[in-house]
Amino acid sequence: MEIYFAPLQGFTDFVFRNSHAKYFKGVNKYFTPFLRVENGEIRKKDIKDLSLSTVPNLVPQIMANSCVDVEILVQCVKNHGFRECDLNFGCPFPQQSKHFYGAGIWDKPEKVSEVLSALKNFPEISFSLKMRLGNTDVFQTLDLIEVINSADLKFVTIHPRLGKQMYSGEIDFKTFETLYEKLSFPIVYNGDLKTSADIETLIKKYPKLKGVMIGRGLLSNPFLAEGSPFDKKRFMEFHNSLIDGYSEIYGGAEFMVLDKMKTFWTYSDKDKKVLKKIQKSKSLSEYIASVAMAVQN
Ligand SMILES: Cc1cc2nc3c(=O)[nH]c(=O)nc-3n(C[C@H](O)[C@H](O)[C@H](O)COP(=O)(O)O)c2cc1C
Question: Is-contact 227 196, C-beta < 8 A?
Answer without folding.
Answer: yes
